[in-house]
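tool_call: predict_structure(chain=1)
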Amino acid sequence: MTAKRDEYIKYRFKRAEESFEDALILIEKKRWNTAINRLYYSCFYAVISLLLKNGFVTRTHDGARTKFGNEFVKTGILDKRYGKLYSKLF
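tool_result:
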C-alpha cells in the first residue's frame, strides 16, 4: 500500500471519528435528524476506510454498503448487527 493511500485511509477514519463526535453533540441538543445523518456518515467513512485498507474501491454510497455486506458481514468477519445498523442508518 502506498503512503498516499495510507494517508487517505487515516483521513477517512478521522472523519468517521469527527462525525461521531458531532453526532454526540447533536444528540445532547435533541437534534435527532441531523444526529442520525452524522451517525450515518461516521459509519460510511469507517466503512470506506475498511474497504480501502482491504483493497476495495467503490464509487457510490450504495456500492460501499453492498461491498461491506458481501465482504465483511456475509463472510462472518463482522457480526451481522453492524451490517444491519449501517443499513438502517443508510
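agent: The chain has one domain: 3-89. Proceeding to next step.
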